[in-house]
Specification:
single chain; six-stranded parallel sheet; 11 helices; 15 strands
Length: 326
């Protein structure tokens, strides 16, 4: 089969290769998926570059997200799954063979039925960006009639977070860093959009909420935004954070948060519990069946152009998702 891979960590142009490798066979409990798309995420390029440590396997086929069609099943898997359109989660997490190949064999539960009307490009965005947004926004249940804040509202996760909050019945505030990103957050359905570069975030949120603040924050930059978050989060509110790159070891204003009863939920989408994973998978499919989600596919590359796809992700200039077509 044709695949992209690397056998050492380093710059994309130096280590990524495309060619023929042995095709996998599904083992007991597994399915073999004929891949149509593969999603590129920040974790994929960081792992290849070495930011996640040394090479975990002698050869790595990258990418955890993707979409395709089940071509074969292993022992114990219902043969009725043959021909099923699916989206994949954790394709490359703790595994040598990810989704950036013509075929992938993986546990049956990691190939999720793709709702009718959703295409394979959308499928390549669900495993990390949409799942991260779903857990951060809805892991504690519905946010109906609540006011939520989505930081980085034009990011791959934030874009889904806004839509999922609106689908659940919340009022949504989003922060962005410019006009182009404001337009993206508006398209997603945000009720108030604040440019944190030149607007008073705390004042704008207090004005919008009549001084009450927000019930929940879906947070892309915990440390960098903490001074704002502690001022705008409601008593007994929740900050659900999936990143803190700018300030990796923030000083925690413990008593300020404690006396408001604020709940902190730091999470990594790859390692959520089985029950939470089931909630995410079922919830995302429900949202897609309700046609509540649009997908921001900014760039699409052929498999032969995998180096360009990784370079684009590393540039931090792309608004939305990057997909490789197989």
């Amino acid at each position: 089969m044709k695949a992209a891979w690397y056998e050492k960590i380093g710059p994309a142009e130096e280590v990524l290769k495309v060619g023929d490798v042995d095709a996998p066979k599904p083992q007991a409990g597994e399915v073999l998926v004929e891949m149509k798309t593969s999603g590129v995420n920040p974790s994929d390029v960081k792992t290849r570059a070495g930011a996640r440590g040394e090479l975990a396997f002698p050869r790595i086929i990258p990418h955890s997200d993707g979409g395709g069609i089940i071509a074969a099943v292993g022992e114990g898997v219902d043969e009725s799954r043959m021909g099923e359109r699916v989206w994949i989660w954790n394709g490359a997490f703790g595994r040598a063979h990810g989704t950036c190949a013509e075929l992938i064999a993986l546990p049956s539960e990691q190939a999720v039925s793709l709702p009718e009307g959703s295409d394979f490009e959308a499928a390549a965005c669900l495993g990390i960006p949409a799942s991260t947004a779903y857990y951060g926004m809805l892991c504690d249940g519905s946010v109906e009639d609540q006011t939520v804040l989505v930081t980085g509202g034009a990011g791959a996760v934030g874009y889904y977070g806004i839509q999922l909050a609106k689908w659940s019945g919340a009022s949504v505030i989003a922060t962005v860093s410019g006009d182009e990103k404001a337009a993206v957050a508006s398209e997603a359905g945000a009720d108030l959009i604040i440019n944190y570069k030149n607007e008073d975030v705390v004042g704008s949120i207090h004005d919008f909420t009549n001084g009450e603040g927000v019930d929940r924050i879906l947070e892309v930059e915990f440390g960098g935004n903490l001074s704002v978050s502690e001022q705008v989060i409601k008593t007994n509110g929740t900050i659900a954070s999936y990143g803190s790159v700018a300030v990796m070891e923030p000083t925690l204003p413990f008593y300020n948060l404690m006396f408001k009863g604020v709940k902190l939920n730091t999470y990594l989408i790859y390692i959520v519990s089985e029950s939470d994973r089931n909630m995410i998978v079922n919830g995302l499919n429900d949202a897609m069946n309700d046609q509540a989600l649009t997908h921001l596919i900014s760039e699409s590359y052929a498999l032969d152009d995998i180096i360009d796809a990784h370079r684009s992700m590393e540039s931090n200039r792309v608004i939305g998702n990057i997909v490789v077509t197989i």
